[in-house]
Design goal:
Elements lengths: L3 E5 L5 E5 H10 L10 H8 L4 H8 L3 H6 L8 E4 L5 E6 L3 E6 L1 H11 L5 E4 L5 H21 L12 E5 L20 H13 L5 E5 L5 H4 L4 H6 L6 E5 L19 E4 L6 H8 L5 E6 L14 H10 L4 E7 L14 E7 L7 H11 L5 E5 L15 H10 L5 E4 L3 E2 H10 L5 E4 L4 E2 L12 H10 L3 H12 L8 H5 L9
Parallel strand pairs: 3-6, 6-7, 7-8, 8-9, 9-10, 10-11, 11-12, 12-13, 13-14, 14-15, 15-17, 16-18
Antiparallel strand pairs: 1-2, 4-5
Helix pairs in contact: 5-6, 6-7, 10-11, 12-13, 13-14, 14-16
């Protein structure tokens, strides 16, 4: 007797299936070899998944279940509002996601020893954040006191990133900003966690917005345990008011520092000049106070710092959704001036300041992001002439990023004039087909004729710039420009 069964199809009609024929089809079916991938590839794939996705992937086959526990899979752990939580009903607030302590303890005991990078995303559930930091701190303390491998979570962490959601306004209201800083029990839990991480090489504390009295003791434990190991430190908006953060000058092997201008001062720069630090990123974001209330470091102090540390490079960066001005550091060895905002225009007075202060040190200049403001097509209202002046005066400029409207003739002149420019990034949608430059007395008739002919099409411009720069060059699309990355430490 032939084996068979009935089932209902998509049209709710019963159909008969011959199971013997199905078995024969199964024997002839060719399956993929995803289960036989080497561990190296499985680790790389699993590392991009969230905890929930890793769990679901581990249910596919034995090979993927084994990959679930590989070390590199858990090298980076990201804590968010719903990570390792369970639903609990509250009579006042309804259903809430609270940290599941049993699940968290199991996670830390099983894979906590594999954590290398620990990231705390901006969380609105402070209870979950507080409890998780205390649990991982407790595991680290037990491991140090009893040398128990079961509680090895945190022992191998070398990168810690903590971002506080200081803006408590409605997420839909992007115009208003209501800033609140961390502190109290939450700050105490963070300091306890940092004191137990003895192998930190990179520490990022972003938007804490502390009072000066709290900021005074913020990094005491880190200085005690990681004085010789810390290499990269990021302290963005540690305070809302002007306050010098002296801790940054204590780390002897610090190479890269990201800091807000309100936490800098003459004494801090004096301390850093006697270390081997190579890069200081002075970063302003949307929560950084207005430049009227912040005093830049004096010219005399920067001059002394350049003498004590000739390899020091300063990078001025502005990231904001509103129009702001960079706090200029006169006398600093500035190699980068970089704007990342859709609402900040390239102003002539700002360019004149850059040329006056940093023409002998500037390596990178540009505006990232897609502009959201009016841009004129008139030559006299555009920034073509200012960009040309920048490339003429700043002899060591190697990277130029242009997002505003320019003409094809200007693109050719920028590549021709900037002899040391290795990376020229121009947003193609902002370039207009036009040669509206009057002939300069320095230009020969042959050169001006070449300029007018070559600027008639985008293909000719790309071809000529490729010949000038010695490699294939093209205008960037908006998608390419939006995800443009620039290595500020390359030069």
């Amino acid at each position: 007797m032939r084996r068979g069964c009935w089932k209902v199809d998509d049209n709710d009609e019963a159909i008969y299936i011959d199971l013997e024929e199905e078995d024969q089809r199964e024997e002839n079916r060719q399956y993929s070899q995803w289960s036989n991938l080497p561990d190296l590839l499985l680790e790389e794939i699993f590392s991009y998944l969230s905890i929930r996705e890793k769990y679901y992937a581990s249910l596919v086959c034995k090979s993927w279940y084994r990959a679930f526990y590989l070390p590199y899979v858990w090298s980076r752990f990201v804590l968010e509002d719903n990570t390792l939580t369970r639903g609990r009903f509250n009579y006042y607030s309804g259903w809430q996601y609270v940290l599941d302590h049993l699940r968290t303890q199991t996670c830390l005991s099983q894979v906590g020893k594999n954590f290398r990078m620990l990231t705390f995303e901006p969380m609105l559930n402070f209870y979950n954040l507080y409890e998780f930091m205390n649990m991982i701190s407790w595991c680290s303390e037990q491991s140090q006191n009893n040398d128990n491998p079961e509680f090895a979570a945190g022992r191998n962490i070398h990168t810690l990133k903590f971002t506080f959601p200081c803006n408590m306004t409605n997420r839909d209201d992007i115009e208003r900003i209501r800033l609140f800083g961390t502190g109290g029990k939450l700050l105490a839990a963070l300091k306890r966690l940092m004191s137990n991480l003895k192998k930190l090489k990179r520490l990022e504390l972003i938007d804490l917005m502390l009072d000066p009295k709290e900021a005074q003791f913020l990094l005491d434990e880190v200085c005690e345990g990681c004085c010789l190991t810390l290499q990269t430190l990021s302290v963005i908006n540690t305070t809302r008011v002007q306050y010098e953060l002296f801790h940054v000058g204590v780390f002897l092997n610090l190479k890269v520092l990201y800091i807000s201008p309100q936490n800098l001062g003459d004494d801090v720069i004096e301390l850093l000049s006697h270390t081997n630090i190579e890069h200081i990123h002075i970063l302003q974001n949307r929560y950084t106070p207005n430049d009227i209330n912040i005093k830049p470091v004096s010219y005399k102090t920067w001059k002394t710092a350049r003498k004590n540390n000739p390899n020091l490079k300063v990078h001025l960066q502005l990231e904001s959704v509103k129009e702001k001005a960079i706090i200029w550091q006169q006398g600093a060895p500035v190699s980068t001036v970089l704007y990342d905002s859709p609402h900040i225009k390239l102003r002539t007075d700002h360019l004149m300041t850059v040329i006056e202060f940093y023409k002998s040190t500037l390596r990178i200049f540009g505006h990232k992001n897609i502009p959201r403001f009016y841009r004129s097509k008139s030559f006299h209202e555009r920034v073509d002439g200012s960009l040309m002046l920048l490339t003429r005066q700043c002899f060591y400029l190697t990277t130029l990023i242009v997002t505003e409207r320019i003409s094809t003739a200007t693109a050719l002149l920028l590549a021709y004039t900037g002899r040391n420019i290795k990376y020229l990034f121009i947003r193609g949608n902002a370039v207009i087909l036009r040669c509206d430059w009057p002939q300069s007395p320095e230009w020969s008739d042959e050169f001006y004729a070449w300029l007018k002919v070559s600027s008639r099409s985008y293909e000719l411009v790309e071809k000529e710039i490729s010949q000038i720069m010695g490699h294939k060059w093209q205008f960037l699309t908006d998608k390419q420009f939006k995800f443009l990355q620039c290595n500020l430490h390359e030069f």
